[in-house]
Amino acid sequence: MTDPVLSVEGLSVDYVVGAGTFHALRDVSFEMMPGRVLGIVGETGCGKSTLAHAIPRLLPEPPAKVRSGRVVFQGVDLLEVPKWKIPLVRGTEIGMIFQEPINSLDPSYRIYQQVAEAVRVRRLRDAGRAPVFAKEVQPFDYSKGRTPKAGEVLSHPFLPSVPQPRSGGEGAPSPPVPPGMREEALEYLRLVRINDPETVLNLYPHELSGGMRQRIMIAMALSEKPSLLIADEPTSALDVTIQAQVLTLMKELLEEVRTSILFISHDLGVIAEIADDVGVMYAGHLVELGPVVDVFQRPRHPYTKALMRSIPTRYQDDGPLPTLAGSVPNLSRLPSGCSFAPRCPIARDECTVDPGPALATPLEFPRGRINAASCLYLRESEGMP
Amino acid sequence: MTDRPPLLKTLDLVKHFPVNRSLRDLVRGAPSRAVHAVDGVSISVEPGKTLGLIGESGSGKSTLGWLIARLFAPTRGQILFDGQEIGTLRGAALRAWHRNVQMVFQDPIGSLDSRMRVWQVVGEPIYAQEGTRGHALRERVAEILPTVGLPPECLYQYPHEFSGGGRQRISLARALSVNPKMIVLDEPTSALDVAVQAQILNRLVALQRERGNAYLLITHNVAAVRYVSHRVAVMYLGQIVEIGSVRDVLERPVHPYTKALLAAVPVADARRRRTRYRITGEIPTLLQPPPGCRFAARCPFVIDRCRTEEPLLREIPGMPDRKVSCHRAEEVADVAPDLLLSPEESPPAPEKAAPTGSAG
């Protein structure tokens, strides 16, 4: 049995703001196996982006506050790791792709400089010249009360400084670059199927289209060879044809670069396309988790059923679209018991008191039907359309 | 097909946006350039029916919607509304005509004034057209709100107090307030979640049945077009490449671009997962449309003729009520999208999710 790359155990995150305390994540648990894609799907405000940001600890604290839980990545609880060490995890071990690539690329640097920075960081770490995130390397323990000697911290540079070669005017000699850096950057651009990568390397982000920018982001994330890639709505800002290209690319890259992907999307179609397993979130709760074919073909939780049914797939003369009554609950005033109970067609009195069984996290998905759902009346929900 | 005259008809409609020339170009005497946003579009919308307009971003579909709502004046061509030429309307005549066509915009935050209460937002078209104000206006608005599923109590609320779906309902109520003959819906559901989207789409269809408004639905969301539209037009680089009844076009697309666009839509069915036909490359710039067929650079069926001769929107024998602009329409009509890949481009397609035999 292989160890999971990432296991999230009982993670709860609140946002404490003036208007109240918003329970963005409540008791979320799942595991990710190497080389598999876990899709997380849910409506706006269900906490899926909070989850994506909580794993690499990118949440702004405050207002965010991790109430409880563990995020065990490669045997280390990331929530226990001192904050200064977290950047060692980001990038090299956990790669990230976000929705708007233009916001993730620095507008004042050329593509080459940005890709090369990622390549350079990884090279320094490979060569042992930069601190890496590993169990053996203990951070300096400030809590012991001993003041660090000069150089004790500095001997491990926090992040290696990256020389920024800026080309001057036309005809100026190109600045010296580390040997092979350009070739490696080119290689990653070719990996993400960018036409004419030599030209693209010298462009600025604003000169590229949305699909190209997202490919650059994927190239940068992969150049660090992460064991976990977190993709937060990576194709939602793209056109449907470009989205198909990017999804196909990601699927092909999965064969070449073995990495686990946590793929967050609101689009059920995209999740069906790329994910191996899928988790459905509602009001900060993971309500169903299972292999993608099972969850889509035979959803068990009433919310998943309603969500699947509301995908418009019919013509007007086939009758009205099935809808889900009511709206998503306010995360600061959640109903007691199951948060879906007020909208649930099979809810009973117990549902308003008992939040339902905890979601079991199967270690491995064998053939067959074991998608876990957190509902008291799973047997009754079988009969639901 | 009905014998009724179309409510709206455009004839060879053209909209070019001139691009400012740099000083260097001016001195050199370079010709001024223009973005060819809409380039020769002829469509018609029947009264009480919906025409869906789909295409990628940059295809000019929103510009066409704005032209039809006369928020832009056309560069060339005619827009006939109820037989009246409206492309040349100006001033007070245009303002009075605007009661016939209203718009719903994509961004429900940006298109509602955050400092106006619901009754002011929804009542503004009534005030502009009829001068109604005060208590009478609020009464009119209170009658409209239930038709879009909002309680009349929310008259005095502000738009920010509503969720995305609620805001889009306010937009819809504003468009309905003067009871227009036609509503241009510019991406009405793309900011909404799938469950809320279904509510809004249901409401749109119900309203059309009750009130008989015609819709022009501009969207990249094929699911919304399928449900709401009667006819559908596919746009690419400022031109219509295929038009026909919604069932025919979505189930039996003829133009290679339509096939590609429909094949690219992800289907929420994990069993049907496959490496789909994808068109390579991206939508070219509208600044200098290529000669010949505009899709030629990305088309897998391209022949030499496509690069030189521009195809016209023409009827296809054996397919009533369908027009396609493709030289090879007859040959490619029955090619399934999956077969479009040339052998060397065809990627290995490992079926990750094998279809289970009994599922159904």
CATH A-level architecture of chain B? 3-Layer(aba) Sandwich
**Rough outline of chain B:** globular
| Structural category of chain A | alpha/beta
**Mind summarizing the main beta sheet of chain A?**
7 strands, mixed
CATH fold assignment of chain B: Rossmann fold
Sequence of strands across the biggest β-sheet of chain A: 6-7-8-3-9-10-11
- How many structural domains does the protein architecture of chain A include? 2
Radius of gyration of chain B: 22 Å
For the record, the count of structural domains of chain B works out to 1
End-to-end separation of chain B: 36 Å
Query: Overall 3D geometry of chain A?
Result: globular
Q: Output the CATH topology of the largest domain in chain A.
A: Rossmann fold
Instruction: Assign a percent range to the helix content of chain A.
Output: 25-40%
**Residue share in β-strands of chain A:** 15-25%
What is the CATH homology-level superfamily of the largest domain in chain A?
A: P-loop containing nucleotide triphosphate hydrolases
Classified by CATH, the class of the largest domain in chain A is Alpha Beta
Mean pLDDT of chain B: 83
Mean pLDDT of chain A: 77
